[in-house]
Specification:
Blueprint (H helix, E strand, L loop, with lengths): L5 H34 L3 H24 L5 H28 L4 H24 L7 E3 L3 H17 L6 H16 L3 E3 L12 H16 L1 H45 L1
Antiparallel strand pairs: 1-2
Amino acid sequence: MVESSPNKRLGIRRGIYVLPSLFTTMGLFAGFYSIIAAIQGLFIMASWAIVAAAIFDALDGRVARLLNASTDFGAEYDSLCDIVSFGLAPAILVYLWVLAPFHQYGWLAAFMFVACAALRLARFNVQIDTQDKRYFQGLPTPGAALLLATMVLFFEKMQLEPISWLSMTMVLMLAWLMVSRVRFFSGKDIDLRQRRPFPLLFGMLIGLALLVAETYKVLFFVMFVYCAHGPFLSVWQYRQLMRDRSLRRKSNVNDDAHGA
């Protein structure tokens, strides 16, 4: 049995670390292409490029964990690429698509989106070891970018006239959600290897069929629901917390009364 040399083993290991970065670079390319397409007025292509960037962004992390190839360099590189794909690209897309008539207010709203995306990514990097893995604090940048991209797809495919003031409001709302303390489900605690009931599998198949049949409609609906669920989740959790505190307070008062 011939043993591989240390140099060959090191080369394999380097190759494994390059693979996640390759997916990250592909996401960066998709984001850059989205900017070029938006400048050329190809808004549908620009939107699909952001969707592609989100797919590559999801794959690079999965591949890194699968190959045990997560590094500090990879995390920093991913964030730098994300600011292009999920900060600059959607902001330029939505500005050229609908915000340009607002003049300085339009590009200021687009800038707010970019700035909040950068702040969101920086906060995520410094809090990654202390956050609850079940939730994201603040709307993830891919979620905000995908909602804008799928909104453009929906209006363009349906040949609807975009509503300027509504688009401006959505951009500013998404910017605020990214830097807020609103919680969003991360989905990281979902284990697809566990056994699931048959109705769940059937529902997934129905969802996949709808996605294939009405892709842009389903994507827009899913992203809108995801971005909207955070505020509702935070309000529900806050009410539950207040209720628990009230029950504990009443329990303590009753205990004191019985003790007296």
